[in-house]
Amino acid sequence: MKARVEIMLKTGVLDPQGEAVRHALGALGFDGVGGVRQGKVIELELPDGTTEATVADMCEKLLANTVIESYRIEMA
Prior knowledge:
ATP binding, PurS, cytoplasm, about 80 residues, ligase, three-stranded antiparallel beta sheet, Phosphoribosylformylglycinamidine synthase subunit PurS, single chain
């Protein structure tokens, strides 16, 4: 069983890496990019029967800084 966790900074939290990417795209001639948010993806190989609630608990305790980040879980 696999789980995919997408972690992004919450709206309103400054994203300096995203801003650097937006600026670099403009410098490369890709005009009109209004904003970039950068995040991370974590893929987990889990034992069969692992619940989404268990993965959420992993996110709350370790994988995401829930003060400034939000996460989304996909189970497969």
